[in-house]
């Protein structure tokens, strides 16, 4: 893939245009009267009772909320006055979030938490928006395969870039789709976070993987994949290179994991053939989601990526897709047991969901 075209928005934010073969982006000057960005716009605070960092980002209260389609800031803006993408059209575009949870690219180390009652630090890191298409009414599942592959290439590019930056400990590419999930913009898009710490779920899974290696001498994630393949009851789709399945202990009403059949830490370690296969498998699963019910399935897509270092050596790249829809007319709400105790109670069987996804 050729390098993306770099552009700059009115307030100095970086923008990258990724294009299909034969397409040349034609951005124009961003002429919006945007206020200058503050160097630090959020704060990290340490929760001693859980051992976790919390991001305090009050500026996000001002972000754009469900605008009308003709006022969408992610649609092309050929005048340079109306959009986050000042161009007559685009294929895939990535830019720094105007309302970031984390910002600032300088070298950063978390403070010592011992002996201090209230530990805080600047909310350093990186938050980017990735627009999958210029079509406001589109969806990832509807993208032609070469276009879906371009999104994967953009994810890979941003992963490599952010992993190489000082102070970034984890790169997380994700998508929230559907107002039921809580999206504030309906245009098909995702986000990319560069965290200055390991997120709690990643830390928890790596601890479980380290314990498994100490006991058995093998990789936990590879073992889980092998067991799902051997059992077969929850497999959704399987090729020579990738496998999609509903996990044995699924938490969400609809939950599917996609694994490469070969161990890699992140997207940068997949070769071109594997990236092609990943784009095809990923799109296939999302298309199955949209055939489950009369209305499009709201979902969260989470790309779990790891560094190739001693701390994260057992981290196995995979995607976890989940939805709160538990029937055609009902949603699952994370109430007392889930929200207060992180103790999930499922209303459906993983085997039943897998059978349904195979059927569609």
TrEMBL record:
Pfam families: GalP_UDP_tr_C (PF02744), GalP_UDP_transf (PF01087). Its cofactor is Zn(2+). Keywords: Carbohydrate metabolism, Galactose metabolism, Metal-binding, Nucleotidyltransferase, Transferase, Zinc. Residues 21-43 are annotated as: Disordered. Binds 1 zinc ion per subunit. Its EC number is 2.7.7.12. It is an enzyme of class 2 (transferase). The active site is at residue 189. One of its GO terms (cellular component) is cytoplasm. Zn(2+) binds at residues 72, 75, 136, 187. This is Galactose-1-phosphate uridylyltransferase. It comes from Mycolicibacterium mageritense. The gene is galT.
């Amino acid at each position: 893939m050729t390098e993306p075209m770099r552009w700059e928005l009115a307030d100095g934010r970086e923008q990258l245009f990724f294009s299909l073969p034969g397409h040349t982006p034609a951005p124009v000057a961003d002429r919006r009267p945007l206020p200058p960005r503050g160097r630090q716009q959020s704060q990290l605070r340490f929760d001693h009772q859980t051992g976790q960092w919390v991001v305090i980002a009050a500026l996000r209260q001002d972000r754009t909320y469900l605008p009308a389609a003709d006022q969408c800031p992610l649609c092309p803006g050929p005048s340079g006055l109306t959009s986050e993408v000042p161009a007559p059209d685009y294929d895939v575009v990535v830019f720094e979030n105007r309302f970031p949870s984390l910002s600032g690219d300088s070298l950063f180390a978390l403070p010592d938490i011992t002996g201090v009652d209230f530990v805080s630090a600047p909310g350093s890191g990186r938050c980017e928006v990735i627009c999958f298409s210029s079509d406001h009414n589109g969806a990832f599942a509807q993208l032609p395969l070469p276009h879906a592959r371009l999104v994967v290439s953009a994810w890979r590019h941003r992963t490599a870039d952010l992993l190489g930056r000082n102070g970034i400990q984890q790169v997380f590419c994700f998508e929230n789709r559907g107002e039921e999930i809580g999206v504030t913009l309906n245009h098909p898009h995702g986000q990319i976070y560069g965290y200055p710490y390991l997120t709690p779920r990643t830390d928890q899974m790596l601890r479980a993987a380290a314990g498994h290696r100490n006991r058995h001498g093998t990789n936990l994630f590879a073992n889980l994949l092998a067991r799902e393949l051997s059992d077969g009851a929850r497999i959704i789709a399987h090729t020579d290179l990738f496998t999609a399945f509903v996990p044995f202990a699924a938490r969400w009403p609809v939950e599917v994991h996609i694994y490469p059949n070969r161990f890699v830490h992140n997207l940068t370690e997949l070769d071109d053939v594997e990236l092609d296969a990943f784009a095809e498998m990923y799109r296939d699963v999302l298309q199955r989601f949209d055939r489950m019910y009369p209305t499009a399935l709201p979902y969260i897509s989470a790309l779990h990526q790891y560094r190739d270092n001693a701390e994260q050596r057992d981290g196995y790249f995979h995607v976890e897709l989940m939805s709160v829809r538990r029937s055609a007319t009902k949603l699952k709400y994370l109430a007392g047991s889930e929200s207060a105790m992180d103790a999930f109670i499922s209303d459906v069987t993983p085997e039943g969901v897998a059978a349904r996804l195979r059927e569609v």
